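Hello K.,

You asked for the raw outputs rather than the summary table, so here they are, unedited. I folded two proteins back to back in the same session to keep the settings identical. This is the first:
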Amino acid sequence: MQLGQNQRMSDAAAPKETSSELVEALYAELRHVARRERWQMGASPTLQTTALINETYLKLHRADCWNDRQHFLRAAAIAMRQVLVDAARERMTIKRGGGIKADTLSAADRVAAASDDEVIQVDTALLRLGAFDPRLAQIVECRFFAGYSEPETAAALHISERTVRRDWTKAKAWLYTELNPA
């Protein structure tokens, strides 16, 4: 019994990692996720992979420490969602052309998986889903906005992969009916 108490005290006394330490340690993983998300969201020329990571870091750097790496990755997924949605909203403003895409010569820029309008619609539906079932909304943030795999999502949310699969199916069905009312 005494050993357990000492162990808990040493765990509590262990220093927690700061944002800059975690970004440094997990930079390659964050870069991979950001690159994948940029590609899925249409690879906007105004928001490069490094810029997405930097914007994510700016949202996270104020936190002094994190419980663990999964806590940091979960927060990074939310921050990436916010950055991507803010960038989509910015591009959709009338001041910047109201969503009209500039015609470029690069073929890579022409392959877009989701328009800015779709990203904003998903974000709005996700807010409604979060009010209904917060865990389903967290899974969508991890899977859709951060591009995490089932094991990565399970680790970030501290749930089983089976729960992720089941909830991901529920969330996709719910979002489909929300985004396609007809």
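The second followed immediately with the same parameters:
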Amino acid sequence: MTRDSDPFTEYAAEYDRWFDSAEGRDIFSREVECLRNVMPSTKGRWVEIGVGTGRFAEALGVQEGIDPSAVMLGLARGRGIETVEGTGEQLPFADDCFDGVLLVVTLCFLDDPKTAFCEIHRILKDTGRLILGMIPSESPWGELYARKASQGHPIYAAANFHSCDEVLDLADTTGFTFIKACSCLLTAPEADIKADRSTPKIVKNAGFVAMAFTS
């Protein structure tokens, strides 16, 4: 996640409008529900890394956000988020200053995920929580977005999707302890998702998986 390679600035408004489309509303509502199932109260100080336009932070009660895109951050501020420009690999925060960190569909855009996880661990208080939302690479949804990337999609072309096992290994090697998970978007991308319900475990073919870790 670097300022020079940020894929979102040029498409910030288009990206944000997607959440108001029929498809966007359906997918977003299920992802938010899935995250809530693993997320404790946001009491204390929380920050979203890769906050983008602030949609998830606003929905989940996270008051602070960091992102490399100044344009995205302008939209996030309009949603009441306190913002700072920066990257996940070099967080401009003191040690042990946050009770929780939210990381939603940002891992795949990080240049150096291991460094970012070490930085997250550094800024979290003892027993602080990391709540991560991801699109598993091994799922039909991950495969769909990978195909779009290969076809030159302006945002997905910058993404590098990961498997659930890769994320669990990364968290373990950087000092985190897995607590629980929840999965949603269990149908294929072309199917009607209106009947989709969250499942309280990791489902590797799910379109979205939320995981909770403690530092």
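The first strand starts at residue 46 and ends at 49.

Happy to rerun anything if the numbers look odd on your end.

Regards,
P.
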